[in-house]
TrEMBL record:
It comes from Bizionia hallyeonensis. Signal peptide: none annotated. Residues 645-909 form the PD-(D/E)XK endonuclease-like domain. InterPro entries: P-loop_NTPase (IPR027417), PDDEXK-like_dom_sf (IPR011604), PDDEXK_AddAB-type (IPR038726). This is PD-(D/E)XK nuclease family protein. SUPFAM superfamilies: P-loop containing nucleoside triphosphate hydrolases (SSF52540). It comes from the Bacteria.
Length: 919
């Protein structure tokens, strides 16, 4: 394969052009590196290097203006805006920046395409007046201001241009317009200078004018890179612009066109691969590279072209370790670097002026990978201690003072992170730069391991230095919100550039970086509609019809640019892998690109289509956790059995054996998060503890309705006490927590009311025990170790001569949940029978300690279903409506059978712990 650059140099050599004395102009700086390399390999003797420039560098030289960054341009434009704006209430910088960005893009296009400014701005203003019926004398203030804005566009443009030219600065469009005005003078001053333009396609009006002037004055040659297959097809967008140049440029009326090549129709191996998701595409690229590297040790003529810049990191992580020679042309966007999230979180918490910070924001910030290492004191992890205190005390909002009290040794760091910025950008910038220096000092202690992280810090330090310079020079940043918007603007445009050998090994680049370059093997990712091509977007103040009228580019021209770049990559390539995302995305479509369909319809090459499907066995039990009971596990079970199985432990096994394994065998406790809203178990515990306080003094005696009534005035104080004991410093004075607090009081009040009514009706109530602990050893001959059962009953009382074993539930329980028909279901269906199992366990334990001599009932009082009263356990007779409510010896014997079977299963080494899928 011969490259386009090689062919151009060969043609210049054939024409005996003195290459040392010409200026070679290319679409990008990147292409210049390859041009120099190709030149060095084709020379037979040493020469002085020719001048090699990108088109941007060339027009800068012509215009004598220095290119200005987008961010600085925004500040300059705001200066102009304030200069022109003569009303009392100009937009703030933050508001201004939202519409100014779009307007600057329009100014840029107007200049690049040499549109007469007076004409287009007057035209736009007239259109808006017609749209708003400005002849109506009763215009609202809003419409008046709106129309004034459109009339001022011309003034904004003229004043901005004047200000920038006076400072010898310019944005791209202005530089182009000034370059056009200077081209005649340039030709006169440099009569001997010859220029060669190569690899261009879509040209704006300014570029066309400059190149045509040089061509017609015999000061230039131009080499196009287009294939005959596209050029001869009048409907093919890859040649849209070059066909227009051939037709419209007077130079080509008498001069031939260099060149129309014939490479595309040559045999090519083209594979189209559909892969789900971006990560899938990255893995696919890694697999292709691994295969290519096995076939050919060097990948010097291979390029990976990324349709989306966000794929860079996943692709880098997917490159096989065997590939050592690698060059990355595209920069890694700073917004993709982990350090960006740190400053985004900082700005987020400081945008509101407050002295108390939400606990999740605090933990998120302190847990950041660049901050958490700073919270180490020797071998002690102070972050863990701080988080533990926050969670155990339910600290929803935390002040800097409280945080410092938790870990005073880190006062300096906390001050940098949570010190009040006072809505002052200067303080914010100083704090951010000081934080960067603090992180840098820490990282430099282990410099070799932190080289990349230090590079990240350097780039962010540079960014904040630039923001500080802009703030000092222009003084437009009045608050943190405006600073954050400028920070985001800068962050979006800055990249972390990679250093590598640009001419060796695998090349990774974006679509625009591929201009003028040719490779034998090409891998193109993200070939989806909305990405390649980018699709319709009209981020502009200029309406579509006005763009057409003034020959400004629309989505049609932008699509043609992508078409050219895509097909140009394929022109000389021998092997092509085209990868697209098969997953539909709400924002970016998901359809494969029209380019793929076009390749099929052309029928020039045989296209191999593949859908990459992850190799996953379709087994419903594939992700099921299975834990075998080895000797260590069995020993833990024996230890737990000797201590005592509780009803909740046994029902957790019924619900999901894996939960039992984690909680009882491995002793893994659930993580205690901060309760922003009072949890259901906290509510239940408060109710239990309050009723224990009320009824415990009456154990062993009858209780009267007057004694119960006397409990009611104590509800508020007692509930508050228990909430504070459990909920620590959590706030129960507002929001959902206040509602839960009131619910707890209402539940207890309603319960006491029912007790009072019941006692007033003449019923006799004796409190036997409150929060009664019971333990019993159960004899299981099949096991050679002791097994105990333990349980705590909320309340045992005697009502009208019947003993009641009562379990309180703060949630809703229906009568059906404490009824059973088939004993075999008791230890298999958790949802239906866990409540029955629990109350039967309490009855079994009490009977084991002291056999029942009086009638006994066991059941539940549901505070969410108090109207149902005491919900008794009942054994329904199969095929009959009869129900047995009293806990008889027969019921306890049947329960014991099920209990022993369940314990035998838990202790059986041959029965694995198998995860149940819980819906």
């Amino acid at each position: 394969m011969t490259t386009f650059i090689h062919d151009v140099l060969a043609d210049l050599d054939k024409k005996q052009v003195d290459i040392s004395n010409i200026t070679l102009i290319l679409p990008s700086k990147r292409a210049g590196v390859f041009l120099k390399h190709e030149l060095s390999t084709s020379l037979l003797q040493p020469i002085f290097s020719p001048t090699i420039l990108s088109i941007e560098e060339f027009v800068e030289e012509l215009s004598q203006l220095k290119a200005i960054s987008n961010t600085e341009l925004l500040f300059e434009f705001y200066e102009t805006y304030l200069q022109v704006h003569n009303t009392k209430n100009p937009d703030s910088f933050d508001t201004f920046s939202k519409w100014a960005q779009i307007l600057l893009q329009d100014f840029n296009e107007i200049d690049r395409y040499l549109i007469p400014q007076e004409k287009i701005f007057d035209y736009l203003s007239a259109i808006k007046e017609i749209n708003h019926w400005s002849v109506d004398t009763n215009q609202t203030d809003f419409i008046k201001n709106y129309l004034v804005f459109w009339k001022r566009l011309k003034i904004y443009y003229n004043q901005l241009t004047e200000n920038l030219v006076a400072k010898k600065k310019g944005y791209q469009g202005l530089i182009y317009r000034e370059a056009v005005e200077s081209i005649q003078n340039y030709i006169e001053v440099n009569p001997e200078k010859h220029h060669v333009f190569l690899g261009f396609n879509a040209l704006n009006k300014a570029e066309e004018t400059i190149i045509q002037e040089l061509l017609e004055n015999s000061h230039a040659d131009i080499y196009w890179d287009i294939d005959d297959a596209f050029f001869e097809n009048k409907n093919h967008d890859a040649s849209l612009f070059i066909r227009q140049h051939k037709k419209n440029w007077t130079y080509f009326e008498t001069n031939s066109m260099n060149w129309i090549a014939d490479n595309y129709t040559k045999p090519k191996d083209i594979s189209v691969i559909g892969v789900p998701k971006n990560v899938g595409q990255a893995k696919c690229i890694g697999n292709i590279l691994k295969k290519l590297h096995k076939e050919n040790n060097t990948l010097n003529n291979t390029a990976v072209v990324l349709g989306e810049e966000s794929l860079l990191l996943p692709v880098l992580n997917s490159i096989p370790e065997s590939i050592n020679a690698l060059n990355i042309t595209m920069g890694l966007p700073l917004k993709s670097i982990p350090l960006a999230t740190l400053f985004e979180q900082l700005f987020f918490i400081h945008k509101k002026e407050t002295n108390d910070f939400y606990f999740k924001d605090v933990i998120k910030l302190l847990s950041h990978q660049f901050i958490s290492p700073l919270l180490q004191s020797g071998t002690s992890n102070d972050l863990q201690k701080v988080v533990q205190i926050i969670e155990s005390n339910n600290l929803i909002y935390i002040s800097l003072t409280r945080l410092t009290a938790l870990a005073p040794q880190h006062e300096g760091l906390f001050l940098l992170l949570f010190g009040n910025w006072n809505n002052n950008p200067s303080i914010a910038l100083t704090s951010c730069q000081a934080l960067i220096l603090k992180i840098k000092t820490h990282l430099e202690q282990h410099k070799k391991e932190n080289i990349l992280a230090l590079e990240h810090l350097f780039k962010f330090n540079t960014l904040f230095n630039e923001l500080t310079l802009l703030d000092n020079q222009y003084k437009h940043l009045k608050d943190i919100t405006s600073l954050f918007s400028v920070y985001k603007e800068l962050l979006g445009s800055e990249t972390l550039d990679f250093k590598g050998e640009p001419l060796e090994g695998l090349q990774i680049m974006g679509m625009l970086e591929s201009r003028v370059l040719d490779f034998e093997t090409i891998i193109i990712s993200s070939v989806n509609e909305g990405i390649l091509p980018s699709g319709k977007s009209n981020n502009s103040f200029i309406p579509f019809d006005v763009k057409l009228e003034n020959k400004l580019p629309t989505y049609k021209e932008k699509d043609a640019v992508y078409t050219y770049h895509f097909y140009r990559l394929l022109q000389r390539a021998k092997r092509v892998f085209i990868i697209y995302n098969t997953e539909i995305d709400a924002l970016k479509g998901g359809e494969k690109s029209r380019f793929i369909t076009q390749l099929d319809l052309e029928n020039i090459h045989k296209i191999k289509h593949t859908i990459a499907v992850p190799d996953i066995a379709m087994d419903a039990n594939l992700n099921e956790i299975v834990i075998a009971k080895n000797d260590d596990v069995l020993n833990q079970i024996k230890t737990y059995a000797a201590r005592g199985f509780s009803p909740s432990a046994l029902t957790s096994y019924i619900r999901n054996p894996i939960d039992f394994y984690f909680q009882k065998v491995l002793k893994i406790k659930e993580h205690d998060d901060v309760e922003e809203t009072v949890a259901a178990n906290t509510l239940g515990t408060v109710i239990h503890n309050t009723l224990e306080d009320f009824y415990k003094p009456f154990e062993g005696q009858q209780i009267t309705w007057e004694q119960v009534a006397e409990m009611k005035p104590k509800i508020n104080a007692t509930v508050t006490k228990h909430f504070k004991d459990l909920y620590k410093e959590g706030d129960i004075t507002k929001g959902k927590n206040l509602i839960v607090f009131e619910i707890a009081k209402r539940y207890i009040s309603n319960f006491l009311d029912l007790e009072v009514v019941d006692l007033k009706d003449g019923n006799i109530l004796e409190i036997i025990a409150i929060e009664l602990n019971n333990t019993a050893e159960i004899q299981i001959p099949e096991l050679d170790f002791p097994v105990r059962i333990t349980g705590k009953v909320d309340r045992v009382d005697k009502r009208n001569g019947i003993i009641r074993i009562i379990d309180y539930k703060s949630g809703r329980v229906d009568p059906a949940k404490v009824q059973i028909t088939n004993w075999d279901d008791l230890t298999t269906d958790y949802d239906k029978y866990s409540k029955s199992f629990q109350v039967l366990t309490y009855a079994y334990l009490m009977h084991a300690e002291k056999p029942f001599t009086e009638p006994v009932e066991a059941g539940i009082i549901s505070f969410k279903n108090l109207s149902a009263g005491f919900l008794k356990f009942q054994k329904k007779q199969s095929g009959s409506r009869d129900k047995e409510a009293l806990i008889s010896n027969e019921i306890l014997a049947d329960y014991e059978v099920q209990l022993k079977q369940l314990i035998l299963e838990i202790c059986n080494q041959k029965v694995d712990f198998i995860e149940k899928k819980i819906s």
